[in-house]
């Protein structure tokens, strides 16, 4: 795997974090972003940092087992889920997950989310074009 421009990727991760926050897809410190940069290296957003205000220097690097290799902020514990996905699917190079407040409310209430409320779901795609 050719090593990409790490600083540029960190900047892009920060931009994605800003967009997630601006759209209300993550409240406070919710959600995380990872990007695989090598066979055994993954960029990772830190724990306890609002994704809307990330700076490139906040992004840390972990190995494929989750051991932090660099960065002054502590890596998120949720990186282990991201790494499992990357290990299971070698074609997956990045994972972005967030905790949209409305979806979280449905989960807490143990209520299903109708697929028609999600504009990207196959069953509702034609309705939202």
| Distance linking N and C termini | 38 Å
Derived structural class = alpha+beta
Report the C-alpha radius of gyration, rounded: 16 Å
Give the overall silhouette: globular
Keywords:
disordered C terminus, alpha+beta, 129 residues, five-stranded antiparallel sheet, 16% strand
Outline the fold blueprint.
Blueprint: H1 6-22, E1 32-38, E2 41-44, E3 60-62, E4 68-70, H2 79-88, E5 94-97, H3 101-109
Antiparallel strand pairs: 1-2, 1-5, 2-3, 3-4
How would you describe what is shown here?
The protein has a five-stranded antiparallel sheet, with helices on both faces. The longest helix has 17 residues, at 6-22. The relative contact order is 0.16. Helices cover 28% and strands 16% of the residues. The termini are far apart. It has helices at residues 6-22, 79-88, 101-109, and strands at 32-38, 41-44, 60-62, 68-70, 94-97. The protein has three helices and five strands. The chain is an alpha+beta fold and 129 residues long.
Précis, in short:
The chain is an alpha+beta fold. Helices cover 28% and strands 16% of the residues. It contains 3 helices and 5 strands.
């Amino acid at each position: 795997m050719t090593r990409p421009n790490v600083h540029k990727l960190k900047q892009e991760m920060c931009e994605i974090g800003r967009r997630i926050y601006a759209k209300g897809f993550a409240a406070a410190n919710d959600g995380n972003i990872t990007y695989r940069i090598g066979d055994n290296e993954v960029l990772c957003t830190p724990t306890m940092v609002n994704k809307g205000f990330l700076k490139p220097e906040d992004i840390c690097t972990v190995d494929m087992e989750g051991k932090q290799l660099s960065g002054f902020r502590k890596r998120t514990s949720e990186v282990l889920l991201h790494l499992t996905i990357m290990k299971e699917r070698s074609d997956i190079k990045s994972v972005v997950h967030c905790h949209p407040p409305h979806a979280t409310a449905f989960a807490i209430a143990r209520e299903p989310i109708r697929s028609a409320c999600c504009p990207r779901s196959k069953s509702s795609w034609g309705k939202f074009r």
